[in-house]
Hints:
Elements: H1 2-8, H2 28-42, E1 71-75, H3 81-88, E2 92-97, H4 101-110, E3 134-137, H5 159-171, E4 175-178, H6 191-202
Parallel strand pairs: 1-2, 1-3, 3-4
Amino acid sequence: MISKCAGFVPGVDWLQSSWKSGAGPVLDSERDWLRTLEIAQKTKPYQFTPVPTAAVTPDRHPWDGYTGTMEFTEISAGIGMFAAAFEAAGMKCVHLVEPNVRALALAVRNCSIESAAPSGLSDVDPGDLQWSHGLVGGPECQPYSSAGKQRAWEDPRSYTLLRALHTMAVMKPWWVWLENVAAIETVKEGAVWGVVQEISELAGYEVRLTQI
C-alpha cells in the first residue's frame, strides 16, 4: 500500500515514523489534548450531589397565577344577590345554601345554578359540601344590630354566623367573604368580633374588615 501511494506523490517518505500507526501528535497542543483525553477516559462519570437545603414555607398561595374560573358557594344566600354580584365579576356559583323556598327560587334565577334544594346551615354538614375556591355569605345581622337589640349569642339567629365560621374551617376555601352590620365589631364591647377573629385565625385565615 505504501509503495502504491508513493507512486501518486513522489518525493514523500512514506516510511517516516510520523505516519506509522500509533505515532504521537505532531504539535505540543495536540499532545496536551491527547493527554487530557486519556485522563478523561480513565475518570468515572461526574456525579452531582446537590447542597442540602432546609424545608421552607412556600411564599406563594395556590391562587397566585390561577387562570381558571373561580368557583364559590353562597351560604345564607337569600335571593342570591351576592352570588349575582360575584358572577358579574367573572366567578361561578356552584352551590347555594338557603332554607326559604321562595328566596332560593329567586337566587337560582339570579345566578348560573340550574336548581338547588332548600336547606339551612343547620341542615348541612360542612364536610358534605362541594369544595369551592371561595365562600360567600351574609349571616343574619339582627343579633348584632340595634334593631335586633344586640343580644348577640343570646339570640338564636346568631347561630348562622357561627355555622358560617364552622363551614369555613371545615371546607378550607382559598378565600371567604362575609357581610354583616358595622355594629358586629363593637357589640358586647367587641367580644363578638373577637370570637370571629380568633376562629378565623385559628383556621388559618387573615381577617380584613372593610366598612362601606
